[in-house]
Amino acid sequence: MKTFALSNKNGMRAVVTNYGGRIMQLLVADRQGGWQDVVLGFDRAEEYLKENHLGDFGAAIGRYANRIGNGRIVIGGRAWQLPQNNGPHCLHGGPDGWQYRPFEVVHTTDSSIKMVLDSPDGDNGFPGRVRVEMVYRLTDDNALAIDYSATTDAPTVINMTNHSYFNLNGSAQGSAMNHVLTIDADRYLPIDPTSLPLGMMAGVQDTPFDFRHPKAIGLDIDKEDEQLRNGSGYDHCWVLNHRGDMSRRCARLESPATGIALEVFTSEPGMQVYTGNFLDGSIVGKGGTAYGRRSAVCLETQKFPDSPNHNWAESNPFLNPGERFESHSVYRFSTTE
Q1: Coil/strand/helix, residue 124
Q2: 52 pLDDT exceeds 80?
Q3: Between 137 and which of 44, 115, 145, 287 could a Cys-Cys bridge form, CB atoms 3.0 to 4.6 Å apart?
Q4: Before 63, cis peptide (omega within 30)?
Q5: Long-range pairs for 274-281 at CB < 8 Å and ≥24 separation?
Q6: CA gap 142, 155 in Å, rounded
Q7: E strand intervals along 130-234
Q8: DSSP conformation class of 103
């Protein structure tokens, strides 16, 4: 397990470990000219070994991010049974997903790191040997760019995301419910009480899920609503309007306290928003901080949950030999007055 420091010409800094491709630290400027670490996690890389799969802080998630219903997929008429590590469902690639593996670091610069991982056929029940490449870059417009690519020797499914927990007040600064969130999405995926999508899309208008205009995350999160009850808050995938256009911002997050703003761009069709509903203070992170409920928000760009079991035209999770999986996301930071 190793750590690597990245920086850009403006002084923005990231610390990454090859264990699960985790982003341990992300230092960005606030409106006062100071620096804030805006991601939750731990001070030392070895502490991620002890998190007991409760947070997946900062990790690269694979082979399939989010949930697959009943841990079952069908490819080419053949059914495959995957681990059921989240109630009846397979979550984040199973109990030994890529976030718990050491990646091989093959190239570094002052501002970037490239890592690779070979996932064997049958890994956590998934078919096909997959080789994945992952690049993190700090750009001089103060963005963290993440690029994934992968190939396979047999038909399989793949869905990757980064599981950073953002608190733009600073990683040890309590609740993130004062953050103002905007999402360019007219629809989202409703879930059942086990957090699995119901298989339909619903409009956000006149619901607590309408973030088409800037709104504090905490404004509606405790309203009486079946979907909020099912997710214990927000733990849902929004269907992005941008149709994979990387030039179109799909989300914006801002802290009124620090003036730090985060804009998200992605080639993916969906974004899972998770508001740290199951953090309960039992995980003690950076500087001895106990991470309490809703002390951060995850903005996980990805294909839709359970896509292998639905015919969603926007979200094709299948990868065949001779094809290349590619996924790109950018998290760009700035400050407001």
Answers
A1: helix
A2: no
A3: 145
A4: yes
A5: 274/234, 274/235, 274/298, 274/300, 275/176, 275/177, 275/217, 275/221, 275/233, 275/234, 275/235, 276/165, 276/176, 277/231, 277/232, 277/233, 277/234, 277/235, 278/54, 278/232, 279/55
A6: 38
A7: 130-138, 143-152, 156-157, 161-162, 180-183, 187-189, 202-203, 215-216
A8: P
Domain locations along the chain: 3-335
Residue 148 three-state SS: strand
Smallest CA-to-CA distance from 304 within 207, 167, 188 is with 188
The one catalytic residue among 89, 92, 163, 179: 163
Between strands 35-37 and 22-29, the pairing is antiparallel
Known catalytic residue at 337: no
* Distance in angstroms (rounded) separating the CA atoms of residues 13 and 29: 10
E strand segments, 13-142: 13-17, 22-29, 35-37, 60-61, 67-68, 72-75, 78-81, 90-91, 104-108, 112-119, 130-138
**What is the sign of the dihedral through the CA atoms of 115, 267, 37 and 13?**
positive
Q: Which among 218, 209, 212 has a CA at the least distance from the CA of 178?
A: 218
Q: What is the pLDDT of residue 171?
A: 75
The distance of Cα 44 from the centroid of its chain, to the nearest Å, equals: 21
pTM, whole model, 2 decimals? 0.96
Catalytic residue selected from 89, 179, 242, 300: 300
Helix (H) or strand (E) segment spanning residue 227:
helix 226-231
CATH top class, domain 3-335: mainly beta
State the residue for tokens 């801002």.
254
Is 300 catalytic? The answer is yes
